[in-house]
Design a protein that fits this description.
CATH superfamily of the largest domain: Histidine kinase-like ATPase, C-terminal domain
Enzyme class: transferase
InterPro entries: BphY/WalK/GraS-like, HATPase_C_sf, HATPase_dom, His_kinase_dom, HisK_dim/P_dom, HisK_dim/P_sf, PhoR_N, Sig_transdc_His_kin-like_C
Catalytic activity: ATP + protein L-histidine = ADP + protein N-phospho-L-histidine
Number of domains: 4
Strand content: 15-25%
Radius of gyration: 40 Å
CATH architecture of the largest domain: 2-Layer Sandwich
Largest sheet: 5 strands, antiparallel
Structural class: alpha+beta
GO cellular component, one term: plasma membrane
Distance between the termini: 78 Å
Oligomer: single chain
Helix content: 40-55%
GO molecular function: ATP binding; phosphoprotein phosphatase activity; phosphorelay sensor kinase activity
CATH class of the largest domain: Alpha Beta
Amino acid sequence: MYEPYPVPELARDHKKSRYSSLRTFAKQDLKLLAFLLIIAAFIGYGTGYFLLCAVFAFAVFFAFQLYSLYLVNEWISNRPYEVPPNLNGIWGALLFNFYRAQRQERVVQAEMVGLIDRAQSSLVALAEAVVLTDELHQIEWANPAAEALLGIQALDRGRNLLTILRHPRFIEYFSHIDQYPDGIRVKLSIEDEKYVQIKLTRFGSESLLLVAYDVTRMQNLEQMRKDFVDNISHELRTPLTVLSGYIETFTDQEDISPRWKRAFDQMQSQTRRMNALVNDLLLLSRLENEKQIPKNQIIEMPSLMNQLFDDAQAYNADYGHTLNLEIDSHYDLIGSDMEIASAFSNLITNAIKYTPKGGSITIGWHDDGEQAYFSVEDTGIGINPKHLPRLTERFYRVDSARSRQSGGTGLGLAIVKHVLMQHAAHLEVESVENQGSVFKAVFPKSALYFVD
């Protein structure tokens, strides 16, 4: 670590005693005062004006202190970064300590500036766009990548961020950052087929850090995957329908042998399962591609809940569970009755399938005045907490063997998630292994319709 200025003589003189008490430095002033008083005593003894000489000695000492104070003030006011005047006594100690603290502070500042320069150089080299805004959301700094990805130039410093990024989805995200923990993906330009993932992070009081990166390749791969699933699902539907029809025809023959009947029953079971998978894939593809049907229908929840309860009782015939229905809310839902019924039905059938025979399942519709929720509570096998974050991923299975045995497609909760997202709702899961689970579809007040 370098020393920006030469060490003054005062600092060298006091280097070994810089941590001594104030008494050490005061002794120098006392020695000077004692020296002046001795001279005054000799002169006073010779002239007979002892008291006057003593007063004069004190005046000289006081004048010297005033002069030292003047030098200290002049150095601090006009030359604080130069070597301080070489003074003894308390004023010299004061100058030395002040100068030493100043030097240490400047070294720390130099290190901080170097650290900031290195950090800024790193940010400049990033391929990701980085933008800093102040409390008024005005741009303070942006790296070169911000111009390529977001169109933010050096001349935009001091402008409000929303005057540059005016995409409707970004404005919505900017106003409700906490509702998008992973940020948003937007296509900023209609002409340019470029997709950008944007994440905002608060720091300080109201300052923001924006990080954005190009996800065009990822978006294209995802779109290719969705198109493939959509196309293959449509292509599979027709042959499956033909196969199912022929298998059903052969199964209904009265003269068919038991051996062939068992084989056709298995084929029919598998074609039904395959058909259910294709239907779920088509529904999920439509939901993901946002090919939405109108979401402005008023869904009468008592009627829907009773219909779901009747369907559940029919599905429950082979399981023997105790089913309960609870409705204590006067709110109806605003949305798509077909999509909502599909999502709720998935939650109910999952509870029935994954609850050992003779269990208890409660289906409910409740509200707390601010939001309403559809719930399914079971006494089933439960779910290990480590699986909860991935439950809504397509084809994710907690227990693959059990899922295949129950005939599930692995898409039910993925469909539930997308249906709820399109209704501004979300899914909450509480579960304890071997004790049961509670699935809640929570809807905001904006999606509710009050019934008198």
